[in-house]
Amino acid sequence: MAAPTYKTRAIILRKRKLREKDLIVELLCEDGTLRSAVAKGARKPGGSHAARLELFRTADLMLARGSLDIICESRLAPDEPRSESTLEQAAVASPLAELLSFVAQEDLPQPRLFELARASFAQIDGAKEAQLLELCAAAIWKVLAQAGYRPSLSECVFCSRPCLDDGDWLRFSAREGGCICHSCEAPSDALSISANLASWCAFLINARFDAIRDCVLDDDTALVVLSLARDWAQEHIGKRILSLDFLFTCDLFEANSPDSKENHDLV
Ligand SMILES: [Zn+2]
Predict the structure, then answer these.
(1) Cα–Cα distance for residue pair 51/82, rounded to 1 Å
(2) How remote is the CA of residue 182 from the centroid of ligand 1, in Å?
């Protein structure tokens, strides 16, 4: 008897080799669940899946159920771009895909996570290089907030007092969940961050992408915002977003690595 089949729309988060010609594809499905499936023959040049299962793009799929589901049919979703991503676009889409694979779960539908992921990848696909790091920072923080890991950026995590009035500098603790006012004792992991940086983080989490695209955040600051996100994800999800490390050390963007700013105050 043929295996039962089902259709889903899904974003391709990751591809891994399986045997000589096949791939295992990690999918964020439209209900927000995470799923792995086999794409047979997808490593063959010109194979039917080869051009339709593009990383970070959305495809309409038919799958057959099995111990590992098998992709029987695939096509790019109608409104997906047909052009190839640039290296820079792929570099900022990778940490987003990695984070999504951490926060999505096999048995937990999160349809809003899929919508956010799709909108985020579309923004990256359509962006010019100068805005890629800013959009990456926005997407990463939005996903963290959507997944329930939203930092407190305007009120002290201990006493709830507004702390943006405290001056130009704040203390920020990933372990405690955000900013700490000047009256409360800062924990040992607290960093000094500028009020400006805290405001940018809050803006990137809360604003719509079209509003974000209208504001220009320089690449150095965007990388610092991303390094805060890396520490935040490590603390709250318990996983390191390795492709952020690549972003910080690659030469694709002109900005300096935030690691060079470690042990210094953050802009
Ligand atoms: Zn306080």
Answers:
(1) 10
(2) 7
Q: What is the pTM assigned to this prediction?
A: 0.92
pLDDT on residue 261: 47
Compute, in angstroms, the gap from residue 261 CA to the centroid of ligand 1: 26
Alpha-carbon distance of 44 to 20, in angstroms, equals 9
Looking at domain 87-155+160-261, its CATH architecture is Up-down Bundle (1.20)
What is the whole-number distance in angstroms between the Cα of residue 181 and the centre of ligand 1? 4
For 5-76, the fitting CATH number among 1.20.1260.10, 2.40.50.140, 3.40.50.300, 1.10.238.10 is 2.40.50.140
Mean pLDDT score, 27-55? 87
Q: pLDDT digit string (tens) for 188-230? A: 999 999 999 999 999 999 999 999 999 989 999 999 999 999 9
Euclidean distance between CA atoms 166 and 194, whole angstroms? 11
